[in-house]
Design goal:
Structural class of chain A: alpha/beta
Radius of gyration of chain A: 19 Å
Order of helices and strands of chain A: EHEHHEHEEHEHEHEHEEHEEEH
Strand order of the largest sheet of chain A: 8-9-7-10-13-12-11
Oligomer: homotetramer
Largest interface: C-D, 42 and 42 residues
Strand content of chain A: 15-25%
Helix content of chain A: 25-40%
Chain lengths: 333, 333, 333, 333
């Protein structure tokens, strides 16, 4: 096992580097001040280099993709698993066994257990020096950041929450099927995973942990014909006595030191375009009587995947939480 | 006052013919079997003809746009007002006074009063021979068709309804502002009208009429970077004893003779692309415990505006309800 | 072999009915005044009906898709082959052998030979009573309609033609590959088929026939992240003595009786949105010195495929050339 | 007049900071290693800060927008004018007079005269220590980088060049008109500026300078319903004796030390998505007989505007040409 001095340069690898989250992680780690990108695992791109495939500049651009199993020879200090659930289930234990830190982006270890659930702002203390992190799903990241502080502060009733979220198509990863073709997806909009989306278990678990009791949640995701971004609209009821001021106070207190949560003046001022390309989660809320509504937006591939993974790596390694994530330019001028 | 034999050819005019709903109405009436398009009122296009502006074929294509006030000389039997609220407030009484039928697409007369609320499937009997119709808003059309039969049948609790709806940008009409420019809207998604959208009053009124009591509704519209289509996701709770079978029965009974409502096997099988270009409303629902969820989709410019106006014209004139609307090709192959 | 009285109702089938061109043809023939849609061949959709799959109303909606080979039992008068080249090569001879008219939408028979090349406006006389038609490709339709009249009239030099054309993604048909996924195509633009697109042979053949000599052509197609529509920009040089008036005269003369060619005042007034959904080809040109430039636009699935196939069916059967095609509503209000 | 030591931190301002190019320049300069963003001139945003408006992090985020005329109090070493032509004509002389370096992004000074034409790769030597730079237009940047080396090397005939270029809508800047609304632009494609686009003069001037004689050019720009990116397809004829090898050699020699030009193996491997977000120009070519074709792609707001302006600032200040531009993440994972 290694002991690191803070700010020492560490060697980090990505397995599943040719998926959308893996590509995004490659871009982020290629310019990280404390991490050296030292391994890119992908059968698809094995033998090609990051400069040719992703246009990455400098030293990281010269890194050549290798079969995933080759990670062992790369003398890594940490690995990001941007792999499907079954692949993560195989790789994570072996990597951990060698004393190498793992941040897994799949749903494999989000059910609780040995991995720390990597909702950075909520579990910052658990994440400090964590050896094994289960990075949250993209929808849960947007939804939990809007709801956890209010359930924790007992401002929101846990039995009346209805969440509707829209997402760009990169959230589903690379797809080689006709259903995901441009001609089929464009100009169409559909809900899916009604009453049973695969992110529901982690949503219920983390919301329940915050509320101190079980949470009754309807969550409806909807696929949009855009590339990136999630907008979640969460509707609920405040408990008696709670009001907009208390809600604002709860958010401010929860996110006082959070570099990547930004509060908007109103739900209508939260737009996907403000966050796409960045690691930000932007939240705006409104209260009418005891009705509460919040909109929260993230980039599904950054704060919803690779960006939060890097944020968790930063926390786990004792680096500045925002290292390599602060000056990400959003994609809209 | 005129008395019409069924299937006699009537002269119909459109005021506000250069707005998106007016243009759509022009296309529909140009090919209507019983209506003769006899007046196109638009200052913007005054002096040009429908063939040049909209590519309309045949006789209707030769019709020349005229200033709106010229409607009086056109010897019309009916007028579609595809005008802003304030213009409708001026024109409707004058036109009615002359014994000419009015179908108003603006919100001006949706609050109740002299006009029949033109949700065709719900108020078919009131619409028969109606002289004055207030055509519903686009969001209300999609939402009411999904909820009214269940409230009417006392299957759904009226105090727990949360509706989220996404809409294409044509729903807002022609806009000459920077906020509605391609560069600002594309790739962005935002909610708006939080707790106070202008369609709320008509939603509350018609839902309350169906439920026999006041309805507590949260309605959140969201603007999408697509041109056409609305998908409404309505979440509620069934009353004790109600179940999926009862819901299905209520829909089947309400829409037994409705040519433009189509039931899908599940909410996830309701897509905007299935209805854009047509006068259809497609509805799919699911039940889990006492939780109810329905997705309903329409084309905001057809069933949500010009198509339903023509459907109402058909009902008011005693024609086949689907005249001129049956064989509309959807825009997706 | 059958002998038809004009305007007798004929039985028409589509093989390859679940492809994009086949779906479009289904919509068109379902509402055709003289053709009865009598067979829909598709393995993919075998057993389902056109109402469920495409939302088609009326009798045609009840038609059930069948395996392609079942065409023989359907007592057809004509078949549209909306099939890949190799399938057309198999089916066409067998169908013709039975005395059934064939309109083939694939490139299989466009090289000359037994089939009449179905550029309707150019070969109207050959198409009258034709038993076998090779429907043109989508790019050639847009380009040939802009260039043939000028080469025929010896106004344009045949050795200096450079054509650039952009197309929506439906032009490539249904695709189940990652390269054609929404996430890969959206926001990207690329040229392809440089110096060797599969439509080049038919372009050279028909242009050469018009010019009376070989034509030197550079043709560069470019794929756009939109669903439908082709815009072709053709640049060339006029022969000495030719001018804008002569060009206009040539177009007017060539398209005097053409219901589906529309001349615009300038190339910049030719937009894809004006034609998508319709069978129109819109052409605008400009001349500067001896430089000539034309923009021409079509809907790749209508005038570029299924619409022109129906137009050719009309011509072959002696019906009105525009039967079933005149009142197609364009997709943009 | 100042004398700078290399790598000394300089104070740079942007006038026109709320336009698309100005916003992009703000993002770039906010993270530049040698420039301190010291002034943001915009009447529209006066009083707000860059963090609130653009989400910019760190010190630059605290910078408050001021009326353009306030530049004089900001003690600037250099100014980027991201202003309309007429505003640049007013501001540039006054700023230069004070000994402050000016990089003008408008067409005002591209006709030759006191300003160096800022096509970085071509005029790197003239740009060293330049006090006044006329930044090229977006289309010319993409086209000139593809053609200048070949004309310079006398490989391409100057009398047979046909260029077709497609551009995203941000190229036209912020627009508050209906014609530029989402509903009008989306799903449409049109050419414009036929035979007379405002970029033609600078194209002719720079191409002529490279060729040593006048160049006969047809240039047709086309507006696409996407936000960013230009793809230019240039077609011409090689001079006798020239071939693909000679072309490749000319490009390699011209761009041997160019960090932002990237050669692709073929024109079909040049896609807008590869460059959007970066300062790259990607070029691919093909030769068939004496026919030459090249595709070149840039991000119209980066290499086509703000990025090249920063590149020119780097060259003028004697900094590393790629400072602040090397690790720009492209917008597509």
């Amino acid at each position: 096992m290694h002991i690191y001095a803070r700010n020492m340069q560490l060697r980090v690898g990505i397995i599943g580097a040719s998926g959308y989250a893996g590509m995004e992680a490659t871009h982020l780690l290629a310019r990280h001040p404390h991490a050296t990108l030292a391994f890119l695992g992908s059968d698809r791109w094995a033998g090609r280099c990051a400069r040719d495939v992703l246009g990455i500049d400098g030293e990281a651009g010269a890194l050549v993709y290798a079969p995933p199993a080759a990670w062992e020879e790369a003398e890594l200090d940490a690995v990001l698993l941007a792999t499907p659930e079954d692949v993560s289930l195989q790789f994570a234990p072996r990597i951990l066994e060698k004393g190498v830190r793992v941040i897994d982006l799949s749903p494999a270890f989000r059910k609780g257990g040995p991995a720390v659930y990597g909702l950075s702002e909520r579990y910052r203390h658990r994440l400090a020096d964590a050896r094994f992190v289960a990075n949250p799903g993209c929808y849960p990241t947007a939804i939990l950041l809007a709801l956890v502080p209010l359930l924790e502060a007992r401002l929101l009733r846990p039995d009346e929450i209805v969440v509707h979220a829209v997402s760009g198509a990169t959230g589903a990863g690379r797809r080689a099927s006709e259903d995901w073709s441009f001609c089929e997806l464009s100009d169409d909009v559909r809900a899916y995973g009604i009453f049973g989306h695969r992110h529901l278990p982690e949503l219920r678990r983390i919301l329940g942990e915050a509320a101190g009791e079980e949470v009754d949640l309807v969550f409806t995701p909807t696929l949009l014909p855009i590339r990136r971004g999630i907008l979640a609209t969460s509707v609920g009821r405040l408990v008696p006595g709670a009001d907009a001021d208390a809600v604002l106070q709860a958010y401010r207190s929860a996110y006082a030191d959070a570099p990547f949560v930004s509060l908007a003046a109103a739900p209508g001022e939260v737009g996907i375009a403000q966050v796409v390309g960045t690691n930000l989660c932007r939240i705006g809320f409104a209260v009418q009587g005891n009705r509460f509504l919040a909109c929260s937006a993230i980039d599904n591939l950054v704060k919803g995947a690779a960006g939060q993974a890097v944020q968790n790596l930063n926390l786990a390694c004792g680096w500045d939480e925002g290292a390599g994530l602060r000056d990400l330019r959003r994609f809209r001028p």
